[in-house]
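User: C-alpha cells in, sequence out, please.
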C-alpha cells in the first residue's frame, strides 16, 4: 500500500521538491505590493520568504497555488525576488577600505559606491531577465526596437560594461549575462584582495544612477493589459535574508531606499527584531516613514495569525489531493477548505482542567470539582463570572477565588475544603471589568498549579487556540505541529487510500480526537527540543544547557503551587537583565553569553522582547549589554509551562546568565532552576513601560 503523503511537510521553502511551493497571498502581501518601500522583520519560520515570493513575477507566472489567487496583471509593478547570499559574497563586507583607498577622505563612501553598484547590477540583471521572459510569454508588451534601444543606450552611457563581455550586448539576454559577469568579478576581487585594480574598470557612476537609468527606460517601454491609460509599470526589488549584511552594507541599502523613486521601490527582509536606525550616507537625511514603512511579522495579532494558519493548512491539504479529487474552487473557497475550528475544536482552560479532574483519583480532584460546583451554584452573571461556556464547570475561577486572601496579590498555597467560604466572599468583588480581566490573566497559571498538584506530567492540550498559540507567530512551527498530528491521525487508516485519508482529515464533520492532537503536540515539542542537540557549532552544548535551564526555571516560576507568588504573578518567564552582579563578570564572559543567546535567537529557540540586542558599544572598557528574551512557546509542552508563553517579567543578572550557560555540567538543571526560583530576589518584578494585559485565549 502506498505511503500517505503528509500535507504539512516539508515545512521549509528550500526543501520543496515539486518546484512549486504552496503560497497563500495574505493581506500583508498586499501591503508589500503598495508603492512605498517596506522593511520586513520576523523570526525564522514566520513566512518572510513566502510573503516575498507571493508578489514576485516568477511565482505569479508559474505557481499553481498562487495563480488561482493572483496574476501579474493584478499589480502595477513587476516584483523581482533576490536572495542576497546567493549573489553577494560574504567577503564583500569585510574589506578594509581605508587601506585600499588611503587618500580618500571618506573610505566608507568608496565602499558604498562599490557595494551599491553590485546590488544595482544584480537588480537590473534580474529585471532584464523578467522583462525578457514575460515578453516572450505574452504577459507584457515590449517592442523589439525598444529592447535594442535600451541595451544600446545602457552600453553607451556605461561603456565599461563592454570590458566584461566578449561581444557587445544587443539583447536583454546578452546584457544580463554581462552584468552577471561583473558581479562575479566583484565578488572574486573582494575574496582575493584585488579590489583596487578592479574599481577602475567598473562604471564611474554615483550610487543609484545605474539602476535608475535602466529601470526608468524599462518602465517607459513595458506595459500589461490592465494598466490604466498613462500609467507606467514599476519594479519592486525584494531582497531576502538581509540579516547577513554588515552595518555598513545595511547603511548602503538604506541610502538606496532613500534615493529611490518611482518606478523603483524595495522590500528589505531580515530575520530579527523590527529595529533599524535608518542611517544613510546622505548627511541629515535618514530614512523616515515617508521613505519606507516598517513591518514586523512577529507583531501579527492572534486573529490574523490564526486566519493565516487556516489558509495555509487549507492550501496544503487541497493541493495534496489527487487532481481528480480536487473540487473546483476559487482562491477564497480554498482558504476555507480546512476549517481549524471545526477540525481542531475550541478548547478552553476549564476544558483542560475538566479532563485532568475526570482522570485523577486524587482527593484533591474531588475537592476541585466540589469547589467549581459551589461557585457554579452562585449567581455567576451577577458577579461577572459567566464567561465559562454552558455545561462547563468554572474550575480556574473557583481555584483562584479559593486561594486568594482578598488582599492585593496575596495567595495561600493551602487547599482546604473548609476554606470554600473564601470563594463566595471573593466572588462578590469580581463585578468590575478590571477584576474580571485580573481573573482571566490567572487562568493558565491556575491550570498549571492544578496539573502539578494532581501529578500530571502531560497536559491534555488540544484545540485551535492552543495549537496556534504554541506556534508563536511562526507558520513553520504551526506546520510542524500539524504534521505530527496528521502522522498520528493517518496511522489507523485501515484500507483507506491516501486521498481518502486526506479527505477524511480535512472534511470530516467531527473534530480530530483530542488524544491525537495531544500526542502530536507533545511529539512536536519533543522534536523541537531534540533539535538543539544536533547543532554542530561550538556553542551547541552551551545552547542546549541554556535552553534546558531556562525551560526548567520557567516551569518552576509558573507551576510551583507551593510558592504564592507564582499565582500572584502568573506566567512569569519574560527575562530581563539587571546589570548588577554578585561578582565582576568580565567583558569576555558576557560576550560569550551574548553569542549563546544570539545563536539561540537565530535558531528560533528564543523570542527577543526588547528593542536592542546586546552588542559592543565600541568602547573597550564597557562590557556588552544583554537584552530581554523568553523561550519559544513550542517548548511549553516539553517543560510544562504556559502555552501562552511568558508575560510577566523576571530579573536575571549577568553572572547568573554566565552560570546558566557555562556552569558546571555536574549541576542538575532542574535542581538548579528549582533552587533559583525560590530566591527572594525573583519576587521583585519589573514594571513594563506600557500597560499590559494577557490576551484572552478562551474567547
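Assistant: Sequence out:
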Amino acid at each position: 500500500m502506498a505511503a500517505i503523503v503528509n500535507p504539512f511537510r516539508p515545512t521549509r521553502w528550500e526543501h520543496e521538491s515539486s518546484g512549486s511551493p504552496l503560497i497563500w497571498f495574505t493581506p500583508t502581501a498586499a501591503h508589500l505590493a503598495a508603492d512605498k518601500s517596506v522593511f520586513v522583520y520576523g523570526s525564522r519560520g514566520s513566512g518572510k520568504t513566502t510573503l516575498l515570493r507571493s508578489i514576485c513575477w516568477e511565482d505569479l507566472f508559474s505557481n499553481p497555488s498562487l495563480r488561482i489567487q493572483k496574476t501579474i496583471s493584478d499589480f502595477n509593478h513587476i516584483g523581482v525576488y533576490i536572495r542576497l547570499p546567493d549573489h553577494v559574497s560574504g567577503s564583500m563586507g569585510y574589506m578594509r577600505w581605508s587601506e585600499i583607498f588611503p587618500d580618500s577622505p571618506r573610505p566608507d563612501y568608496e565602499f558604498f559606491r562599490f557595494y551599491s553598484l553590485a546590488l544595482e547590477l544584480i537588480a537590473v540583471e534580474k529585471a532584464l531577465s523578467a522583462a525578457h521572459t514575460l515578453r516572450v510569454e505574452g504577459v507584457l508588451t515590449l517592442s523589439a526596437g525598444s529592447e535594442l534601444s535600451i541595451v544600446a543606450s545602457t552600453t553607451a552611457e556605461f561603456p565599461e560594461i563592454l570590458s566584461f563581455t566578449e561581444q557587445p550586448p544587443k539583447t536583454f539576454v546578452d546584457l544580463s549575462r554581462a552584468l552577471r559577469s561583473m558581479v562575479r568579478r566583484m565578488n572574486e576581487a573582494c575574496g582575493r584582495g584585488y579590489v583596487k585594480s578592479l574599481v577602475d574598470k567598473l562604471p564611474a557612476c554615483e550610487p543609484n544612477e545605474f539602476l535608475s537609468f535602466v529601470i526608468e527606460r524599462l518602465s517607459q517601454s513595458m506595459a500589461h493589459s490592465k494598466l490604466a491609460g498613462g500609467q507606467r509599470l514599476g519594479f519592486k526589488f525584494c531582497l531576502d535574508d538581509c540579516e547577513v549584511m554588515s552595518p555598513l552594507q545595511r547603511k548602503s541599502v538604506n541610502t538606496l531606499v532613500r534615493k529611490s523613486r518611482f518606478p523603483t521601490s524595495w522590500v528589505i527582509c531580515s530575520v530579527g527584531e523590527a529595529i533599524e536606525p535608518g542611517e544613510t550616507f546622505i548627511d541629515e537625511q535618514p530614512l523616515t516613514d515617508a521613505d519606507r514603512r516598517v513591518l514586523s511579522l512577529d507583531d501579527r495579532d492572534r486573529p490574523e495569525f490564526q486566519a493565516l494558519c487556516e489558509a495555509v493548512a487549507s492550501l496544503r491539504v487541497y493541493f495534496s489531493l489527487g487532481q481528480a479529487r480536487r473540487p473546483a474552487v476559487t482562491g477564497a473557497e480554498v482558504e476555507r477548505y480546512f476549517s481549524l475550528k471545526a477540525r481542531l475544536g475550541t478548547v478552553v482552560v476549564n476544558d483542560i482542567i475538566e479532563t485532568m479532574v475526570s482522570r485523577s483519583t486524587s482527593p484533591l480532584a474531588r475537592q476541585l470539582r466540589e469547589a467549581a460546583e459551589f461557585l457554579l451554584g452562585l449567581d455567576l452573571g451577577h458577579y461577572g463570572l459567566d464567561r465559562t461556556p454552558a455545561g462547563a464547570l468554572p474550575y480556574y475561577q473557583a481555584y483562584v477565588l479559593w486561594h486568594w486572601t482578598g488582599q492585593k496579590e496575596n495567595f495561600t498555597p493551602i487547599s482546604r475544603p473548609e476554606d470554600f467560604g473564601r470563594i463566595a466572599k471573593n466572588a462578590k468583588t469580581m463585578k468590575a471589568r478590571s477584576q474580571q480581566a485580573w481573573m482571566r490573566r490567572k487562568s493558565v497559571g491556575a491550570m498549571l498549579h492544578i496539573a502539578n498538584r494532581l501529578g500530571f506530567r502531560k497536559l491534555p492540550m488540544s484545540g485551535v487556540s492552543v495549537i496556534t498559540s504554541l506556534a508563536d507567530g511562526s507558520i513553520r512551527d504551526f506546520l510542524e505541529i500539524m504534521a505530527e498530528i496528521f502522522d498520528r491521525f493517518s496511522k489507523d487508516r485501515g484500507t483507506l487510500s491516501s486521498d481518502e485519508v486526506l479527505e477524511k482529515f480535512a472534511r470530516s464533520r467531527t473534530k480530530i480526537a483530542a488524544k491525537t492532537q495531544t500526542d502530536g503536540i507533545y511529539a512536536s515539542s519533543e522534536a523541537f527540543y531534540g533539535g538543539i542537540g544536533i547543532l554542530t557549532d561550538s556553542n551547541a552544548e552551551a545552547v542546549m544547557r541554556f535552553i534546558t535551564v531556562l525551560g526548567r526555571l520557567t516551569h518552576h516560576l509558573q507551576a510551583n503551587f507551593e510558592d504564592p507568588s507564582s499565582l500572584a504573578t502568573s506566567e512569569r518567564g519574560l527575562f530581563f537583565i539587571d546589570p548588577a552582579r554578585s561578582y565582576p563578570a568580565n567583558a569576555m564572559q558576557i560576550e560569550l553569553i551574548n553569542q549563546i543567546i544570539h545563536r539561540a535567537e537565530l535558531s528560533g529557540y528564543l523570542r527577543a522582547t526588547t528593542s536592542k540586542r546586546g552588542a559592543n558599544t565600541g568602547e573597550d572598557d564597557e562590557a556588552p549589554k544583554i537584552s530581554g528574551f523568553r523561550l519559544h512557546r513550542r517548548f511549553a509542552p516539553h517543560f510544562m509551562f504556559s502555552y501562552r508563553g511568558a508575560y510577566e517579567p523576571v530579573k536575571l543578572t549577568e553572572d547568573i546568565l554566565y552560570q546558566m550557560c557555562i556552569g558546571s555540567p555536574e549541576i542538575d538543571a532542574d535542581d538548579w532552576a528549582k533552587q533559583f526560583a525560590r530566591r527572594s530576589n525573583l519576587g521583585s518584578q519589573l514594571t513594563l513601560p506600557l500597560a499590559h494585559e494577557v490576551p484572552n485565549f478562551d474567547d
